[in-house]
Amino acid sequence: MLATQDVCALDAIDLVEPDLRERLIRQRHVIDLMELSFAQEAAEFAATLDYEEDGSASPIDWIRINCHMTGNAAADRVAVGGLVPRLGQSIDALVEGEVGFAHLTVMARTANAVGTAFNETALLAKARENSPGKFHHICRHYRHSVDPKGYAAEQVDQVENRRLSLSTWDDGSLLLNGVLDPAGGAALRTALEPLARRSGAHDERNRERRLADALVELASGGEQAAQIQVTSSLETLLGLAGAPAAEMEFSLPVSSKTVERLACDSSITRVLLDSESMVIDVGRSKRVVSEPGRRALKARDGSCRWPGCERPASWSAAHHLAHWIHGGTTDLNNLVLLCHRHHWMVHEGSWQLVKNPDGHLLTIPPTFTFGPPARGPD
Questions:
Q1: Which of 12, 108, 265, 363 has its CA 20 to 30 A from that of 183?
Q2: How far apart are alpha carbons 264 and 367 in whole angstroms?
Q3: Model confidence at 1, in pLDDT bands (50, 70, 90)?
Q4: Of 239, 262, 286, which residue is a domain's last?
């Protein structure tokens, strides 16, 4: 039951909230009007050569730096300001509070794209009814309807402008930077999104980490797994103390735990060296799961066997409960399907996976020691 003071507090909130909402609306309207004024002056500035006096490459670059804006935001203001004579109805609607400045930026971009086919009256009706984001989507359809060849040519240009740069940091981490066209981006997201879903209640990764893991899983897993070449000493493969790291193509040296995981299934092509760095074996491991064995494993497990995970079998690898490096067999009772993330957790993440007599799997997290080690008896 609410106390008297709680009821009074709720009543006060009910009285304050409408005023706060109205204030937000009014403030946003004032900002939109100021944005319009700024856009007009930005367009006037862009028509001059004043930016050259400060050594800027373009008026938009000058506005970006000196007005503390992003390049896209500066370009939007210049575009709107330059089209004020053609956007009379839209500006009147903004002054009346019917649309926002964000609607005007979409309107200006559309007008520039379609030229004489621009129909402000028809688009303004849509702008009044929809959020800026939805209006942008509507305008993309409009652009295609009035100029399908131009729209297609724009998408061709976007494909031609695809780029991806890969650079390696000092610690071996790979930095990715690139741009994809809408269709290419959609294809990538379609492949990544299912893999980036949380794999269970225990999955506490943020979205960026899950997307990064999904990209690695996409490259490493599935029916067409990437074939990675690893050069390793026999001591490294066995995880012996003092053994060097293994060499992986396109990467800095990797740990024996990583080699162990890769060697679990057929995504590794190995080059084994003896203690004098002489090549003693080249090729796939002789102990990978056979194709009939893999089909039986997929039929039995159906998906990743980690409790709570539902990654499909096609995105899972055969994991040896007792690794073949240490004498384990490739018999079905020594194999389970694990998705890329959980396979990594077992090997590099130091989790343990134990099979109970009833066939259920028990996951045991790694143990951590906090503080200095306990002192023995003097």
A1: 108
A2: 23
A3: very low
A4: 286
Q: Which two tokens stand for residue 111?
A: 């007008």
Note whether 256 and 239 are within 8 A (CB).
yes
Contact 51, 58 (CB under 8 A): yes
Q: Determine the structural domain holding residue 168 and report its residue range.
A: 163-217
Closest CA to 174 of 108, 249, 245: 249
**CB 303, CB 309: distance < 8 Å:** yes
My answer on whether 149 and 168 are in the same domain is: no
Q: Is the pLDDT of residue 280 over 50?
A: no
| Strands, E assignment, the chain | 163-168, 174-179, 228-233, 247-248, 268-273, 279-283, 316-320, 335-339, 352-355, 361-364
Identify the three-state secondary structure at position 279.
strand
- If asked whether residues 234 and 213 sit together in one domain, one would say no
Tokens of 135: 């209006």
136 and 255 housed in the same domain: no
- Measured CA to CA, the distance from residue 335 to residue 369 in angstroms comes to 31
Domain count, the chain: 3
Give the per-residue pLDDT at 276: 54
Residue for token digits 């343990």? 352
**How far apart are the C-alpha atoms of 349 and 346, rounded to whole Å?**
6
73 or 225, higher pLDDT: 73
Residue type at position 377 = P
DSSP assignment of 305-317, as one string?
A: -STT---BGGGEE
Are the CB atoms for 117 and 146 separated by under 8 Å?
yes
Across the range 236-245, mean pLDDT stands at: 73
Q: How far apart are CA 61 and CA 73, in angstroms?
A: 11
Q: How far apart are CA 77 and CA 60, in angstroms?
A: 9
Residue 318's beta-bridge partner residues? 337
173-187 pLDDT tens trace: 999 999 988 777 877
Please say whether the beta carbons of 314 and 222 come within 8 A.
yes
Helix (H) or strand (E) holding 216: helix 207-220
| Same domain, residue pair 200 and 240 | no
